[in-house]
Specification:
With 243 residues, this protein is of the alpha+beta class. The chain folds into two domains: 96 residues, DNA polymerase, domain 1; 126 residues, 3-Layer(aba) Sandwich (Cytidine Deaminase, domain 2). The protein has nine helices and six strands; from the N terminus they run αααααααββαβαβββ.
């Protein structure tokens, strides 16, 4: 009787392992047969996570991660290592795999729109260039795009990172960076995490001050573009655009 009970337990544990293995491997097998486009977001994440835990499989773990991100890939892309590790079963290794995939996606989008031979002569091109690295941010960042005489991009640089609704700008730092790159013109870019890209009084005052500083150094301030995830405002056009 003892032997039968023991064998039954072994069979039960073996069946559990097989079920866990199948759940872990199923997304990969589906990808090999049908391609990555056939997988759901949870299944794609499960492939990155590779395995689940004793309590839940990789797909369940992926669904927990999506729930933490409120079902939004934008929120997922902006998550930090501590954010991801809030979920039991996601340690440093799994979290790094997810963050690496998100960063590759972000760089792919940047590469798609970055073309140094094409002038940055519209606010929409500025939006398309910057939104891959700024979308979904929970804090404000201030960037400067440095251009040559043909308005082609020489370089871009983040000069400030702030809180939910403000960031501090050092006018001297902006001018120094522009002169070091021998820039003929610059474009200012910052984001509004609130989702409303219309400039505040502080944004307007800052732009006016920087415009005066640019003129004193013979540098042209082409535009100041304020971004949200789905729209943007151009000081040069004085218009609000949808993405």
């Amino acid at each position: 009787m003892f032997l039968i009970d023991f064998l039954a337990r072994i069979c039960f544990l073996a069946a559990m392992k097989i079920r866990e293995l199948c759940e872990t491997e199923r997304p990969r097998e589906k990808m090999l047969i049908k391609g990555a486009a056939a997988l759901s977001e949870a299944e794609l994440l499960a492939v990155l996570l590779r395995s689940g835990t004793r309590e839940c499989g990789a797909v369940d773990l992926a669904n927990k991660l999506l729930a933490l991100a409120e079902g939004s890939l934008v929120r997922l892309f902006s998550m930090t290592l501590p954010d991801l590790k809030q979920i039991s079963g996601i340690g440093s290794e799994k979290a790094c795999s997810v963050m690496a995939a998100c960063e590759l996606g972000r760089r792919f989008l940047e590469e798609e729109v970055k073309n140094d031979s094409v002038p940055l002569n519209t606010a929409r091109r500025v939006y398309e260039l910057m939104i891959p690295s700024m979308k979904g941010m929970a804090h404000e960042e201030f960037w400067v795009l440095f251009l040559n005489k043909q308005n082609r991009l020489l370089a871009k640089q983040k000069l400030s990172s702030g809180g939910m609704d403000s960031t501090v700008i050092d006018n001297r730092m902006v001018m120094q960076a522009a002169l070091q790159r021998n820039a003929a013109a610059i474009i200012l870019v910052h984001n509004h995490p609130s989702g409303e890209p219309r400039p505040s009084h502080g944004d307007i005052n800052m732009t006016q001050v920087l415009n005066k500083a640019c003129k004193s150094f013979g540098i042209h301030l082409l535009d100041h573009v304020v971004l949200s995830d789905s729209s943007f405002f151009s000081f040069a056009d004085d218009r609000l655009y949808g993405a």
